[in-house]
């Protein structure tokens, strides 16, 4: 499951506009129109980007209580946590391998 989440995360964020949307939502919830203006995307294009991000689970939306027509979008932290866990594993792997290589070189130098 985690691998599928990580794959989908990178697939969705391969698009620079979607990366920018995620970055903007990291600052706080926003409306679709605000995101479109901030990214320079048209409303229909932003709608498509938001749909992809919603389907991937990277963002969520909620209705504003005073106006059911207004949707606020915000980040969903769960996929980010899965990717961070994967990155931590990759980092640990490289740290271990580089440490072993360093010990090997130091042992050879002592000879």
Please write out the topology.
Layout: H1 2-12, H2 16-26, E1 30-31, H3 32-39, H4 43-56, E2 59-64, E3 67-75, H5 77-110
Antiparallel strand pairs: 1-3, 2-3
Helix pairs in contact: 1-5, 3-4
Overall structural domain count: 1
Question: Strand order within the widest sheet?
Answer: 1-3-2
Cα end-to-end separation: 48 Å
The biggest beta sheet reads: 3 strands, antiparallel
Number of distinct helices = 5
Shape: elongated
Rg from C-alpha positions?
20 Å
Strand content: 15-25%
Mean pLDDT: 87
Number of strands: 3
Which ranges are low-confidence, i.e. pLDDT below 50, for 5 or more consecutive residues?
A: none
CATH architecture annotation name: Orthogonal Bundle
- Along the chain, the helix and strand elements come as HHEHHEEH
Query: Which structural class fits the helix and strand makeup?
Result: alpha+beta
| Helical proportion, percent range | over 70%
What would CATH call the class?
A: Mainly Alpha
Oligomer status? single chain
> What do we call the CATH homologous superfamily?
Winged helix-like DNA-binding domain superfamily/Winged helix DNA-binding domain
CATH fold field value: Arc Repressor Mutant, subunit A
């Amino acid at each position: 499951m985690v691998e599928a989440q990580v794959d989908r995360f990178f697939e969705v964020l391969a698009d620079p506009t979607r990366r920018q949307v995620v970055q903007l939502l990291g600052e706080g919830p926003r409306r679709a129109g605000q995101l479109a203006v901030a990214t320079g995307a048209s409303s229909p294009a932003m709608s498509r980007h938001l749909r992809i991000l919603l389907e991937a689970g990277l963002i969520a939306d909620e209705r504003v209580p005073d106006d059911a027509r207004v949707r606020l979008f915000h980040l969903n932290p769960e996929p980010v946590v899965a990717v961070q866990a994967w990155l931590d594993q990759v980092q640990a792997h490289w740290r271990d391998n580089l440490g072993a290589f360093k010990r090997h070189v130091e042992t050879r130098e002592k000879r």
